[in-house]
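Exam revision sheet. Question 4 asks you to relate a sequence to its structure. Input first:
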Amino acid sequence: MKLNRRFYARFLLISILVCLISTIGTYLIDTNFGSIITKDIKITDSMGHDIGLTIFQPKTATPENPAPCVITLHGSYNGRESQNFISLELAKRGIVAITMDCDGHGDASNWKDNPMDAFFLVTANPGSDFEKIYTAPTSGMADVVEYVWHDLAFVDKSQIGIQGHSLGGKTADACYAYYKIQEYLGEPNKIAAVFLMGNQQLAVNGSWLPYLNYNPDDVLDSGDEIHLPYDVHYGVSAGAFDENNYTTEAGGPWTFQHSNNARIFINELDNYDLGEGESVEIGKIYQGPVNGSDEEYIRVLYQPKEIHMVNPYSPASTVNSLEFFQTAFTAPNPIDSSSLTGQWSMILSVLGMAGFFCAVFSSCCLMLTSNFFGSLLVKSPDEVYMPSRPQNKFTWFLYWGFMAVGGLIPVTYMMKLAMWVGGHKGETFAARSLFGTVIWPQGLLLEQALWSASAGLLTVGLYFIRYFMSNGPKLMPPSRWNMKMSWKNVGKTILLAVCSVGVGYAIVGFGHYFFGNEFRLGNYVIRWPAKEPFLISFRFIILYGLFFFSNAFTQNIGRMIQGRKEWANTLLMCVVNSIGLFLLWVYQYYTFSQVGSVPLNSARVMQTWSMFIVQTLCTIIARRLYLKTGKIYLGALINTIMFSMISCCHTMTLNVTNWWF
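Answer key, C-alpha cells:
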C-alpha cells in the first residue's frame, strides 16, 4: 500500500501549526498580551529540595510600587499549571500570583512516603511539628511564603494570601497554622488571607473549631492548650456537588450553608452569633473583628454548582476567588470579577492537545512513505486481516455477548484492585494511593496500570473463548492473522514508534522552553517531562504495553468485522472500551445525588475521567495504523510509549524502598 506523502506532509504541517497557534495564543493570553511577566523558576526548600514555581508578575508590580501576592497550590496528582486560570485573572488585576508544585508532584524533587501528609495530619489541634518549617506539613508552601517575603521586593509583605484546591486547600490551612504558631512564638504572621477550594477549614473529627487549638506538648487535654484565633481573611468555595467534602449533619454538600460548620465559620467574627436553624448566606461578605482585634476581617462562603475536580477550571470558582481577594486586598487594577479571559487560554490548550496527537500520527504516516520504513506497509488492503461476520444467530450471540462482557467486567473489579494496591499501606483513608514499589513509585498510576494490564489480558482471554466456541480455528485460522514479523521489521517498528512520539514531544519541548506552557484538558496534561518521571515512564511501559497490545489485538483481530463501515467499526470499539467507565461514573454520581455521599472511593473515581481520552484515542490510532501495516504492533507501541509518558510525567511520585508488593 502506497501512502500519499504530500497529504501526510501537509497533515503534519497543519498539526504543527495548530500546536504553534495554541502555544503562542496561550502565551499571549496568559501574559495578558504583554502586561504580565510569566516565568518558571525553581527554589530550594528548607530541606534542600527543589520546588517548581510559575510567577505571574504584573508589570505594575515593582519595588517602588509593591503589589499584593497570592500563592496557590493544586490538588493531589496534579501540577502547578492547573492553577494558571486563576493566576492569570489575579495578575490581570495587579496581584502577583505564584503557582507551585506540591511535594512529589511536577518539578518538586521532594518525594515523600506521603506527599499528602497535610491532608491526613492537619487538624485544628496542631502540635510541636508546626514549630519548625521543615517538620510542619506544608508541602513546601511555607518555603514559598518565605521566598516571597525575603526575595520578591515587588510584593507587599502585608498582603500575602494563600489559596489551594483539594489537597492544596488543606495545605493552605496547614501553612496558616504554621504561621499562627510562629506568631505565638514571637515571629511575624506572614499570611493575611486564606481561600479554600474543595476543602474545609481545620476540623476535629469533621467539626470545625473557631480557633486553632495549639498543643505544644502534643498531648490533648493536658491543660497547656493555646487557643489561637483565625484573625485573617478567610473564604471557602464549597462546591454544591463536591463529592469529596461538605457532607454534614445538614445533608449533602448542597446543604452545607445550613450546617453547624458553616455557622462556626461566620461566628469566628465577634459580631456574629448564628444559632441552630440559621443559615449562612451564600456569597455574602461577612465582616468584623476577631477575638477583639482592632482590624476587621472578612468571611465568605461560596457554593458553585460543580463537582470537586472542576474547581480549578471553573469560571464560577475563579469569579469567587477574585471577588474574595479583591475584597480582602487592595487590588492595584480592580476589574469586575466576572470579566474573564482565561477560558480562552484553556480552549487553545485543548486545541494544542489535539494538534499533538495529530502530529504524532501524521509524522508516523509520513515516515512510512520513506523507503526505509516503507517495508512495514502492506502491499494492498487485501493483505489486512478482517474478521468475517458471524454466520448464524449463535455466533452473533457470542460476538455481542462476549463484547459486552469484555466491556463491562473489567470495571467491576477496578475499585477493588485499587483498594487492594492502596491497602498495602493500610485500609484507612490516609493510605489511599500511597503504595508503590521502587520500580513503579507512583501509587495511583500503579493501580491504573495494573487494572489496564489485567483488563487487556482478560479481553484477550474472552476473545479466545469465543474464538473456539465459534469454530474459529477452522474458519479463521491464526495463519491468516498476519502476526509474524522479521526481526529487522521489529527494529524498524520500535524506531518508528519512538520517532513519532518524539516529534510530538519536540513540539511540547518547544512550547515549554520558549513559552513556558503545555497542552492540557482539565487535569489531563501533556507536559515536558522532568528527568525522573521520564525514566519512570519506561518502567510503566511493561504494564501499559500489556493493555495496548492486548487491546489492539482484540479490537482488530476479533471485533472489527468485514462489511461494517470503517467509521462504525471504530466508533463501536471506542464505545466498548469506555462504556464500563461511563457506567462507573453514572453509578457513582447518581448514588451521590440521592444520598449525599459516594459509594466508591471518590479520589480514584475522579482520576479515571482522563481514561476516556486514552480508551478512545488508543483505538483510533491503533486502528488506522493497523489498516496501513496489516499488523497490530506499530499502533500499540506508539500508544504504549505516548500514554506512559503522559501519565507518568503528571502525577504524584512516592519515596519507596520496597521492591515488590
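Marking note for examiners. The mean pLDDT is 95.
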